[in-house]
Amino acid sequence: MSATVDGKATIAGLELLAAGIVQASGLALRAGVAAAEQSAKATTRWKDKSGETRKSIVGRVESYSRGFVRAGGASVFLENGTRPHPINAPVFIAGVGWRFIRMHPGTAETLFMSEARSRGEQAAQYGAEYYAGEVIRRIR
């Protein structure tokens, strides 16, 4: 007496599982990018003056393994802070020479993009667990 094991069904199941995991990773990445973008746009760590920096925040998914959120405007200064610096043109003062008459005291770092990245990573991790779990439940 002998038993025959057909591996075709197993291979088909594993192929379906692999395709589902790839799709789940893409959905998780999209969720992470969306969460990071929303967090950066919704931050209250700084006040809008022109609205340009907030409008410049854009998330994008390029592939199943690469996504990003970019911010323009004054984001680099908001994220990292600034040292004291002149805020107007130099003035020539007789006997003294060129001097800046007003100085900006500088700004503290806000780390709003770092916070957005952290929220995006959390959302992506949760999404990966959820979507991978859904794939496994459907394969059974």
Structure description:
With 140 residues, this protein is an alpha+beta fold. It has one domain. The protein is 53% helix and 14% strand. The chain has a two-stranded antiparallel sheet. It has a two-stranded antiparallel ribbon with strand order 3-6. Strands 4-5 form a two-stranded antiparallel sheet. The radius of gyration is 26 Å and the shape is rod-shaped. It starts with 7 loop residues before the first helix and ends with a helix. The model has no long low-confidence stretch (mean pLDDT 90).
Outline the fold blueprint:
Blueprint lengths: L7 H35 L9 H5 L1 E4 L5 E4 L4 H6 L4 E2 L3 E4 L3 E4 L2 E2 L7 H28 L1
Antiparallel strand pairs: 1-2, 3-6, 4-5
Helix pairs in contact: 1-4
* Approximate strand percentage: 5-15%
Shape: rod-shaped
Mean pLDDT: 90
Task: Please tell me how large the radius of gyration is.
Answer: 26 Å
Residue windows where pLDDT falls under 50 for at least 5 positions: none
Gap from first CA to last CA: 30 Å
Number of separate domains: 1
Percent of residues in helices: 40-55%
